[in-house]
Amino acid sequence: TAGRAKKVRRKSFLGLCSYYRRHIPVYSEAKVFLFDLTREKMLFIWTPTQQEHFGKLKQMLAYAATLAYPDPTVQFEIHPDTCGYGIGAVLLQKQDGAERPLAFASRLMSRSKQNYFITEKECLALIWVSKKFRQFIFG
């Protein structure tokens, strides 16, 4: 059916975005508004908010950040961040006098973790990203 085909296209688009998520800052923040529309028993209602985040993801794909190659002789920096429903981070190095992104990471939090206080979410983000970028931090 036409509805099924549209759902498959939405899943394909999110799959493409997921493949390039290391090049897309705050990927999970934009994804959260579209992910529910791919669920089997979810009623499809396209809102202005979803249109906005769909546009953001398309734009971020078109202008995905160019990642720098890590230099093991230069100190790494991690910048974690959190929002109401997700955590994310960027791994940076200062190269040629400028901060260069090496990797981006983000994920959605479970419903229970979304209820954490902001300081707890920031700590959760720091712990998660420390594990995610462990090979860079600890060698």
UniProtKB/TrEMBL annotation:
Residues 46-139 form the Reverse transcriptase/retrotransposon-derived protein RNase H-like domain. InterPro entries: DNA/RNA_pol_sf, Retrovirus_Pol_polyprotein, Rev_trsase/Diguanyl_cyclase, RT_RNaseH_2. Keywords: Endonuclease, Hydrolase, Multifunctional enzyme, Nuclease, Nucleotidyltransferase, RNA-directed DNA polymerase, Transferase. It comes from Daphnia magna. This is Reverse transcriptase/retrotransposon-derived protein RNase H-like domain-containing protein. PANTHER family: PROTEIN CBG26694, PROTEIN NYNRIN-LIKE. GO terms for molecular function: endonuclease activity; RNA-directed DNA polymerase activity.
